[in-house]
Write a structure and sequence with these properties.
This protein is α/β, with parallel strands linked by helices. The chain contains 4 helices and 3 strands. A 3-stranded parallel β-sheet has the order 1-3-2, with helices on both faces. Helix 2 packs across helix 3 and helix 2 crosses helix 4. The radius of gyration is 14 Å and the shape is globular.
């Protein structure tokens, strides 16, 4: 099962996701956390993202999507039938348009 939480920053997506994750024994995938982690670990995607972040620009959707795909792939290896909770803010209206 996949659960997607959408909403603006500070609305409580992470709080709700943490509670759901605990109650459902699931994995929470937060795009903001992934961006920070990839930049900190200097992954290829993190370095690409950082080049935009350093200029004060939004990280392109494709870079974020590639990070989510990588995380889901790694999660599926450990929880093949598990619940995945993804929380993010659709800054570019990619999903909502």
């Amino acid at each position: 099962m996949n659960i997607v939480l959408l909403g603006p920053p500070g609305i409580g997506k992470g709080t709700v996701a943490a509670k759901l994750s605990k109650n459902l024994s699931s994995v929470h995938i937060a795009t903001g956390d992934m961006l920070r982690e990839n930049v900190s670990n200097k992954t290829d995607l993190g370095l690409k993202a950082k080049s935009f972040m350093d200029k004060g620009l939004l990280v392109p959707d494709q870079i974020v999507i590639d990070m989510v795909k990588e995380r889901i792939k790694s999660v599926e290896e450990s929880l093949p039938d598990g619940v995945r909770i993804v929380s993010f803010y659709d800054r570019t209206n990619l999903i909502l348009s």
